[in-house]
């Protein structure tokens, strides 16, 4: 048989394997997914980069394969249903695209990426109907694990791990003192760093645990119990691992302990945790993983699905509406991305009564990051009483993915510098505090404030919401970051000095507006 004839035969055989009533619906859903992927191409590229390059998210590379397998084992049950376009699904699609738009405009990757995934999910009921979506409910829901998440959990996991480690260290007879995420022992100072938080294995275990809970258990009671065990196990195991490193260092030295930890702490560690999880729980598995868990007869008899299924529409019109929504939101995003506020060509820091500018000469270099800001200024002020406060100010023409004032790595704590996060500082509506430490002995207390329009806040979430609203409504307003910091003083003295400085400024908001030329 000639090669062209063989290829044609295979293509025809593949088409023949698809039920006649499903060929056009599958073509429509494929076209819709392609259009939605093109609209959110930047987000999909960012997600793929994280899956491949960031170890925390390497497990996500398996999620598309898992979703495909979950859909494949349901193919006969889904094939027995009749696909029908469903107009309420278009409302869900519009909501997903709106979330994507908000994330794009505010530079919130997690929101735009979630919206991109939700758009693919929403296209299924819109073009195939609620019964098909119900039959594919778990594979569709599992697609949410395509969104890289977990960085937000790092500070909390660091503190939890530090608490576990200090307790085990003292129980094992090693004298130790803890300050935030730093643990001081007779052989040296140890830090529960971000890489030691265990977030890498927690998010991977969540994806694995949800898959096992659904495919290996029938009842919700067992599923919930299994998932609770699956999530608590890596947290506890990570604490034991970190304690083991410190304990070994007491007798074999820090270099030996670090070498052992680097070898052990990887997917070998995760494999051992998974082995313990399955070894403890496998005896309660009561479902075959190949069981699709889809009762077609029940779906056909469902009165709820009957009522929902009445809201049908022509398939061609539904596809046209999907493409129109994708194009409309892409246009909206393009127009909003061009909105920028006017900022002064030059920026001078306003004077602070009772405080004079002195040379900025920190004991350890400290320069907050403000990527994409139109202006950045840093200065040191000294009061008549000799108190010193460092001030960092940055002004942005807009907030987006490349200019996100509250993004990870922006602001007071810059990665790959001598400074380390120790613990949260005081928090108030207008500022968020953090305690930093350099070389294990030099403390810096920093308080961050953001100003956008009439909003003055220390909440990154509120800043992002304001940025979303501004870009969405095509408002041109700048965003400013103010970081007040004291080096080398205890936390209470630092806070008192900052309070006196703020009072002399006339308030954070008024001073920031004067610096931006708005007053």
From TrEMBL:
Recorded topology in the membrane: Multi-pass membrane protein
Enzyme nomenclature, EC number: 3.4.22.-
Family annotation (NCBIfam families): 8TM_EpsH, EpsI_fam, exo_archaeo, exosort_XrtA
GO molecular function annotation: hydrolase activity
UniProtKB keywords: Cell membrane, Hydrolase, Membrane, Protease, Transmembrane, Transmembrane helix
The protein's enzyme class: hydrolase
Highest taxon of source: Bacteria
Transmembrane segments: 26-45, 57-73, 85-103, 123-147, 224-244, 264-285, 311-335
Location of this chain's protein in the cell: Cell membrane
UniProt domain Methanolan biosynthesis EpsI: residue ranges: 318-506
Protein's UniProt name: Exosortase A
Record-linked Pfam families: DUF3485 (PF11984), Exosortase_EpsH (PF09721)
Main location: membrane
Classification via InterPro entries: EpsH-like (IPR013426), Exo/Archaeosortase_dom (IPR026392), Exosortase (IPR019127), Exosortase-1 (IPR017540), Methanolan_biosynth_EpsI (IPR014263)
């Amino acid at each position: 048989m000639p090669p062209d004839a063989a290829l044609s035969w295979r293509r025809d055989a593949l088409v023949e394997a698809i039920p006649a009533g499903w060929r056009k619906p599958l073509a429509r859903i494929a076209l819709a997914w392609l259009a939605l992927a093109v609209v959110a191409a930047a987000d999909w590229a960012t997600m793929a980069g994280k899956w491949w390059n960031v170890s925390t998210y390497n497990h996500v590379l398996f999620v598309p394969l898992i979703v495909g397998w979950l859909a494949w084992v349901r193919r006969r049950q889904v094939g027995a249903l009749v696909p029908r376009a469903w107009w309420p699904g278009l409302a869900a699609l519009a909501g997903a695209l709106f979330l994507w738009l908000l994330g794009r405009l505010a530079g919130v990757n997690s929101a735009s990426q979630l919206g991109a995934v939700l758009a693919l999910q929403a296209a299924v009921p819109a073009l195939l109907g609620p019964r098909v979506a119900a039959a594919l409910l778990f594979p569709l829901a599992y697609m949410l694990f395509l969104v890289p998440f977990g960085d937000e959990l790092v500070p909390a996991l660091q503190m939890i791990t530090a608490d576990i480690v200090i307790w085990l260290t003292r129980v094992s007879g090693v004298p130790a003192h803890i300050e935030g995420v730093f643990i001081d022992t007779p052989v040296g100072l140890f830090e529960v760093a971000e890489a030691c938080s265990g977030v890498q294995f927690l998010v991977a275990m969540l994806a694995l645990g949800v898959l096992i809970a659904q495919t290996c258990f029938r009842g919700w009671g067992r599923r919930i119990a299994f998932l609770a065990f699956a999530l608590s196990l890596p947290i506890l195991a990570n604490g034991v691992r970190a304690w083991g490193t410190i304990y070994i260092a007491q007798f074999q030295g820090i270099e030996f302990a670090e070498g052992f930890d680097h070898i052990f702490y990887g997917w070998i560690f995760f494999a051992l945790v998974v082995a313990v999880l399955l070894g403890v729980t496998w005896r309660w598995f009561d479902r075959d993983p190949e069981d699709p868990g889809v009762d077609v007869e029940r779906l056909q008899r469902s009165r709820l699905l009957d009522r929902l299924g009445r809201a049908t529409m022509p398939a061609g019109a539904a596809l046209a509406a999907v493409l129109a929504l994708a194009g409309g939101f892409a246009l909206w995003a393009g127009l909003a991305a061009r909105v920028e506020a006017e900022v002064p060509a030059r920026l001078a820091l306003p004077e602070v009564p009772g405080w004079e500018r002195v040379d900025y000469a920190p004991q350890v270099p400290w320069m907050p990051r403000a990527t994409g800001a139109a202006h950045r200024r840093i200065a040191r002020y000294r009061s008549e009483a000799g108190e010193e406060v460092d001030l960092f100010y940055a002004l942005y023409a807009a907030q987006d993915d490349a200019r996100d004032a509250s993004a990870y790595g922006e602001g007071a704590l810059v990665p790959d510098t001598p400074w380390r996060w120790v613990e949260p500082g005081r928090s108030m509506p207008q500022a968020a505090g953090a305690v930093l430490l350099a070389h294990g002995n030099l403390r810096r207390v920093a308080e961050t404030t953001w100003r956008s329009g009439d909003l003055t806040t220390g909440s990154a979430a509120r800043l992002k919401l304001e940025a979303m609203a501004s870009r969405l409504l095509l408002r041109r307003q700048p965003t400013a970051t103010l970081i007040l910091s004291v080096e080398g003083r205890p936390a209470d003295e630092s806070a008192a000095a900052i309070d006196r400085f703020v009072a002399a400024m006339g308030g954070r908001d008024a001073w920031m507006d004067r610096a931006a030329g708005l007053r």
